[in-house]
């Protein structure tokens, strides 16, 4: 597995553009037995309306339906990813709260899948969702690829962050000047000298 990890890490983290990175990620998903790959990133800024970036290779009809129906609001993989970084294997029970979404996804050939999120120290969240047309993911298959999938989430997030943050949130990578740091230091209030009125 170490050799496989090294190869994939070099390919993903070495990508110079978002399309190259996503193509590489999709190829890894295929190696692991999945037809489709989706990666979503939620940037925490601006606070009032965080930016959401979505990349996927789903059928165009499903992409269009997902957008028109605003499925991101009811997608169980998204809501699970906001609450937990544990993986979620798609099954009927996962979709009981949104049966029309599940029915629609299946009608577009999405029958089995796996999703896992990650969150970094900057407050940026990512969700990797892999799916296929086959009916299920067996326990044996899951045991065989679980470590690779969990590892892939982190590498996908790191590679995507490097490219997407710079593009969509350039102010996040801006370095403060020495003078700006000095001004901020002057504005710090020492909690021990605050008075309570």
Query: Total number of β-strand segments?
Result: 5
Architecture per CATH nomenclature, i.e. the level-2 architecture: 2-Layer Sandwich
The overall number of domains is 1
Distance between the termini: 62 Å
Q: Let me know the CATH homologous superfamily.
A: Transcription factor LuxR-like, autoinducer-binding domain
The CATH C-level class name = Alpha Beta
General shape: globular
- H/E series, N to C? HHEEHHEHEEHH
Calculate the mean pLDDT score and round it. 89
Total helices: the number is 7
- As a whole number of angstroms, the C-alpha radius of gyration is 20 Å
Main-sheet strand order equals 2-1-5-4-3
Question: What share of residues are in beta strands?
Answer: 15-25%
Helix content: 40-55%
The helix/strand class is: alpha+beta
User: Per CATH, what is the topology?
Assistant: Beta-Lactamase
Largest sheet properties: 5 strands, antiparallel
The low-confidence runs, each spanning 5 or more residues with pLDDT under 50, are: none
Can you describe this structure?
The protein has 197 residues and is an alpha+beta fold. The protein has one domain (2-193): Beta-Lactamase (2-Layer Sandwich). Helix content is 47%, strand content 16%. It has a five-stranded antiparallel beta sheet, sandwiched between helices. It is globular.
């Amino acid at each position: 597995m170490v050799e496989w990890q090294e190869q994939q890490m070099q390919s993903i983290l070495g990508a110079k553009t978002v399309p190259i990175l996503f193509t590489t990620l999709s190829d890894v998903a295929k190696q692991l037995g999945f037809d489709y790959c989706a990666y979503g990133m939620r940037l925490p800024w601006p606070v009032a309306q965080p930016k959401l970036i979505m990349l996927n290779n789903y059928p165009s009809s499903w992409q269009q339906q997902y957008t028109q129906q605003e499925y991101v609001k009811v997608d169980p993989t998204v809501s699970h990813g906001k609450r937990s970084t544990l993986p979620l294997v798609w099954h009927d029970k996962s979709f009981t709260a949104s049966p029309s979404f599940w029915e629609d996804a299946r009608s577009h050939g999405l029958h089995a899948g796996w999703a896992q999120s990650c969150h970094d120290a900057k407050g940026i969240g990512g969700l990797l969702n892999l799916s296929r047309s086959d009916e299920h993911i067996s326990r044996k298959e899951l045991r065989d690829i679980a470590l690779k999938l969990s590892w892939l989430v982190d590498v996908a997030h790191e590679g995507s962050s490097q490219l997407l943050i710079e593009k969509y949130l350039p102010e996040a990578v801006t370095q403060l000047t020495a003078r700006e740091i000095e001004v901020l230091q002057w504005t710090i209030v020492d909690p021990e000298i605050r008075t309570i009125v």
